[in-house]
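Our preliminary data section would be incomplete without showing what the modeling component actually yields. Below, a chain of 893 amino acids is followed by its predicted structure, encoded as tokens that our downstream tools consume directly.
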Amino acid sequence: MSGRRVGPIRALWRAVAALYPRSFREDCGQEMEETFVARYRDARAGGRARALRFAVRELAAAGQGALAERLRPGSPLGSDRAPIFVGQDLRHAVRRLLATPLFSGMTLIVLAGGLGISIFTASFLHTAVNKPLPVEGGSRIVRLNAVTPYGGVRPIDAAELARMRPEISTLNEVGAFANRTLTVGSGEGAWTLDATAAEANLFTITRARPLLGRTLTALDQARGAEPVVVLSHRAWRLGFGLDSAVIGRLVQVNQVATRVVGVMPEGFEFPVSSGAWVPIDPELLDPLATDGGAVDAFGRLVPGVDARQVESELEVLLARVRADRPVPEGVERPTRISARTFPEAQVGDEGMWVVAILNGLAALILLLACINVGNLLLARANEQRRELAVRQALGASRGRLVMQHLWETILLSGAGGLLATLVATGGLELINDWSHAHLEGNLAFWWQWGFDRSVLLASGGFVTLAVVVLGGAVSLRATRERFLDTLRAGSAPTETRESTRWSSALVVVQIVVVSVVMFVGVSSGILGKRLLEMDPGHDTERLIRTGFDLRIERYATLAEVDRFRHAVADALTERKEVERIHFQTYLAALQMEESRIELPGLSGQAEDQARAYVLAVDGPLATLGVPMQAGRFFEDSDTRDGAPVTVVSQALAFQLWPGGDALGRQIRLRALEGEGAPWRTVIGVAGDLPYGQPLSRDRSPVAAYLPLDQTAVRGVALLVKHRGTEAAARAAIVETVAGLDPGLDLLRPQSYREMFEKGGAMVTATAKMFGGCFVFALLLAVTGTYGLVARGITRRTREIGIRRALGASDARILQLLVWQGGRHLGLGAALALPFTAVAALGMSQALPLPRAVTLLTAVAVSISIAATVFVATWLPTRRAVRIEPRDALWKDG
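Predicted structure:
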């Protein structure tokens, strides 16, 4: 086993071994550590589960041995001369915990569960979002992207980047790259590979060394140079069986003989998940070019410079180089350039909402665990009030009493933190193994989960927080009472006003936390279920999706865009692997102002409600399994010079002309096409096909179609219904487009089957992972709420006895207590409302949450919590009123 795999467990052992006295560590520490590591290697050879069991057992035994060594007679802590009798207090805490195994075990499980979920979530998200790239100086490498006026992110104009690069002072080693899809081999044996066309400094900026052969050099980019490729370790394994003789071999790449010059080490797939690297076209980065393409860029921050300074400098440089460049027809130029770390750019703004929600949910689960543990510790402290009062009366200081209670919390939190760390580490390694086994090639290369520094930091931080919150609250609460009042109360101490306030506050906080956790959990479950059952609304059998964007200057006019698209269509239809093709792109979504439809003579409310999804298409809708209901679809004659026409869906035709014939009617899209928008004649009615996000309330089959040749569209999705195998069809698509324009960025062709399988696997795994967390939180919530309410009523048994002795009926007492519980419920629900609203807003940013689902979820959660509070009030009240008043008056509260 490599040192990298043993390093984390060695660090964990050293953390536990630090509990031993210094003299013991000097005598035996090194030998114990080496023995532990050697035995862990042997256990690891038998599988991950066996290694985890071994680590838990041995680390727990080491901790117990360290505690015993610290407390043995004659040791510093075991002496009465230790400050404030630390040894005695610690031994006393250990004895008390061992004397109550049920209490200790229950507290440990609850605390370890809450800490484990928090540690797991914090480390999981840190790796996904904040962890620096696993290359030398990875935290200072940033990705540059152009940002549109609407906040969208896209590649940078290559010529503009080439002009700005010599003047950039805030970045070192600025380089460019572009995504490429490569077809390796030919015929039935061909396979596609996500690759990166890059400059040679991609490898120097990351300080990456090849495993075999060499990386790209500046000579590889020269005009007329031999085509070369560098393989990732994954591509080398899958395509060439780890054959080292591949170096120097000629292979077919996009129908061109290409020499394999290098293989990179396992785990290196910069910039995101690249399977291979080829030289970027040098003409693409010519600063004098007027019709270049688009590229992404990267750079290393100059020491002392942050991303904001980079963006400010690039804004000035961008305005300078654009001063004398005309804007091509139909091209919308980005307004600025963003500089983000690669993890931040990969997650995006929507992903940050998910991160915030999951971190908040983990914090709430930990809060639930702390409330429940605090309730258990408070109940235990309440039982010791007379003991504490006697000690205080005999001269014990308040600090000594606080430390005696605090040691129990420290021991429980430490043991819970150790167990939680081991469980969280096991969960991280399981999710890492699963994701790389099922989603290989679709994950950012820095997403490697397991035991690392973030786990240790999260564990230390959460355990410290638990000690401060639990230890401070319980210790201070247990020692604030006046000992004379406690002793005077005899064997039946009454519920104090302060104690009642504490109990009420805990109940309200519990209700708030439970409401938010249940809302997020139930909503996530519903969204996950609907995603798994998602119906695309059209025929996806033997359907492959890809696409390209011609918003680049070498396609300066729309006529050139049309010619290239027609060339792609003609070339693909001649391939034996292709049955039919279909181009499409969204022009307006239902909620956009541009979706508004005008009809002759229509005004007022009817006109305001006339909206539809608007798409520009080319190729029959039959490719998607959608038949024509009336009229015809677009033909070759429906060009930019032809009469303006449209095809509407059956749902739109029924909405606009109920009971009438839609053929020959006219509509206008002035909000989309401007003041000079033409009146378009309806030439056909197509079958219904739902558009919009699968879970969105705006999903609808109301649609209008325009011919692509009558729009200014430059970016399109290409859908191909294929014959034969998927691999052959994908290869045919890549080869055809590369043959027409080798430098064009083509989205990786994917079948709908592949997309559904990977998406479904990811949703299922995520649902199981966080579903387990939610079930644990739900158990904490229900039992905790019940325990808090029931404990408060049980402690009022004497009060209930007094009320009954004075003539109050059982119904009246039950009504009083239920009303008080309802007051707590109402206050908790009111306080939970803004938190629930924020959670709903955040979830709607990442996954569409219809209003009906939000409302029904909130109602269901409210009913569940109300039922829990009612049962928690009614059951203990029923038991209390069954006690005879004479016995209730003498009952210890």
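Confidence is low (pLDDT under 50) at residues 76-84, 490-495. The two ends are 59 Å apart (CA to CA). Preliminary results of this kind motivate Aim 1 of the renewal.
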